[in-house]
Design goal:
The protein has 3 domains: 71 residues, Winged helix-like DNA-binding domain superfamily/Winged helix DNA-binding domain (Arc Repressor Mutant, subunit A, Orthogonal Bundle), CATH 1.10.10.10; 113 residues, Alpha-Beta Complex (Aspartate Aminotransferase, domain 1); 244 residues, Aspartate Aminotransferase, domain 2 (3-Layer(aba) Sandwich). The chain is built from 14 helices and 13 strands. Helix 1 crosses helix 3, helix 5 packs parallel to helix 11 and helix 6 packs across helix 10. The protein is α/β, with parallel strands linked by helices. The chain starts with 9 loop residues before the first helix and ends in a 13-residue tail after the last helix. It is globular. The structure holds pyridoxal-5'-phosphate. Pyridoxal-5'-phosphate binds next to helix 6.
Length: 474
């Protein structure tokens, strides 16, 4: 930190800056902060300013002091935070950007009508289908084969969304105390699952904006694998949540070769793989499992983002022996899977490519409207335009905290997830995930609420003005 990073009110920006250094791990937790007098002299500010910043950090749990002994960094207690990432019910007059899941298209109802017509053929049977209906597994296998990953029906297990596929794979491969690499930031529920299982979560930075000079993400993964000897790596190669980042063909090869070479099982989550949004996007990138030997990569997929999360239909691809173990555990847990949903999923998969054309077009428009509006109304924010997926991963100006913005936003009827929800520990408080899954008028309304919330947060925390006009709007 230097004097140049501090803006009035200086004590508040100093507190935010120090807090972000602790959250990022750049200042070690439990490390001693400089004496107040020393820091004041180094930054050219008054001692009262530093005293007040340290007090703020202590009040928020980011520092502890002993009279006369000094001040140490610490982390706020988050033990009371419930780790579950499920959106709440809609409330009139508010905008909820805590979830990134598009509404269901009319084809869902049509598919269920067709499923009900097909149902009588199955009624004479017992209704249990361990591993899923053969017709559905065959369609998933066919779709994977079409994407360049030759797959048989036996290599596909139907699951209750990608969530159950991921949980099943983790239970089959990861033991308590095992290390698991996750890209960082990542889908929060994966981290919650790993924690619940007693895994050691090892975050590996995957920053789509980072220069590639150091070998980028594959090199970082390789380093982490070498140093921590993990059992598994959980990756979202296509249009990751929250960044929308995609691995290049070369990165895919390097990642799989290095992790397989070090005996690390890769779990590729393809939940968002259908959501390429750039019209000039090059041809489909090969699935991660297609660039490694058999058994090196497990693949989870779902209809949740390509069609609708309410379906709860997903799948896991892997070697039949591993799938049998996953299926046995799933059967012990909840018996079997709903038949009508699987029949509807067959119909939806048959029409998926056509349906995706419209879905991508809508998402592309929503992405572009949100990016343009944010860049216009909050010009000091870094707002990237991701190549696909469902959300923007915005970097806030230095000194602005996404928890402060999220807190302020609620007073304007806007619900957000803080950036740190997508990190391990307290990282990413300077980021905000903004999904573009809702219609354009809702997104534009959300931006106006956000401008007001950001201005409130800046006033409370003392970051530079974020609105172009400088005034509080509305
Ligand atoms: C990367 C990723 N994987 C999996 C899921 C959950 O998928 P499903 O609804 O199929 O369980 C999500 C939902 O947000 C996600 O973003």
């Amino acid at each position: 930190m230097g004097r140049a990073t501090l803006h009035p009110p200086v004590a508040a920006t100093l507190a935010v800056g120090l807090r972000q250094l602790v959250a990022d791990g750049r200042l070690p937790v439990g490390g001693r902060l400089p004496a107040e007098r020393e820091l004041a002299a180094a930054l050219g500010v008054s001692r009262v300013t530093v005293t007040s910043a340290y007090r703020r950090l202590r009040e928020d749990g980011w520092a502890r002091s002993r009279t006369g002994a000094g001040t140490w960094t610490s982390l706020p207690d988050r033990s009371g935070v419930v780790a579950a990432f499920v959106p709440g019910s809609p409330r009139d007059g508010t905008v909820d950007l805590t979830y990134a899941s598009p509404s269901g298209p009319p084809e869902v109802a049509e598919a269920y009508a067709a499923a009900l017509e097909a149902l009588p053929h199955l009624l004479p049977g017992h209704g249990y289908a361990a591993g899923g209906l053969a017709d559905l597994r065959a369609r998933v296998a066919e779709r994977m084969t079409g994407r360049g990953l030759p797959t048989t029906t036996e290599q596909v297990l139907v699951t209750t969304g990608a969530s159950a596929a991921i949980s099943g794979a983790l239970r089959a491969v990861v033991r308590r105390g095992d290390g698991v690499l996750v890209e960082h930031p990542t889908w929060p529920n994966a981290v919650d699952k790993l924690r619940a299982q007693g895994a050691r979560v090892v975050p590996v930075p995957r920053d789509p904006a980072a220069p590639q000079g150091t070998g980028g993400f594959p090199a970082a993964l390789d380093r982490a694998a070498r140093e921590t000897a993990p059992a598994l790596a959980y990756l979202v190669p296509d249009f990751a949540n929250p960044t929308g980042a995609v691995l290049t063909v070369d990165e895919r090869r390097r990642v799989v070769a290095s992790l397989h070479g070090r005996g690390v099982v890769v779990l590729a989550d393809e939940t968002l793989a259908d959501l390429a949004l750039d019209e000039d996007d090059p041809a489909l990138r090969p699935p991660l499992a297609s660039v490694g030997p058999d058994g090196a990569v497990l693949t989870a997929g779902s209809l949740s983002k390509s069609v609708w999360a309410g379906l709860r239909v997903g799948w896991l691809r892997g070697e039949p022996s591993l799938l049998a173990r996953v299926a046995a555990a799933a059967t012990r847990e909840h018996g079997s899977l709903p038949v009508v949903d699987q029949l509807a999923a067959c119909v939806l998969l048959d029409r998926l490519d056509d349906a995706l054309v419209g879905r991508r077009e809508r998402l592309r428009e929503q992405r572009d409207v949100l990016v343009d509006a944010l860049r216009e109304r909050l010009p000091t924010w870094e707002v990237p335009r991701p190549p696909g997926g469902l959300s923007l991963w915005c970097r806030l100006p230095r000194g602005t905290s996404s928890s402060a913005v999220t807190e302020a936003a609620e007073r304007h009827g806007l619900f957000l997830s803080t950036g740190s929800r997508f990190g391990v520990g307290h990282a990413f408080d300077e980021h905000l995930r903004l999904p573009f899954t809702q219609p354009v008028p809702v997104l534009l309304d959300a931006v106006e609420r956000l401008v007001r919330a950001a201005a409130d947060a800046d006033r409370a925390w003392g970051a530079p003005t974020t609105s172009r006009t400088g005034a509080v709007l509305g």
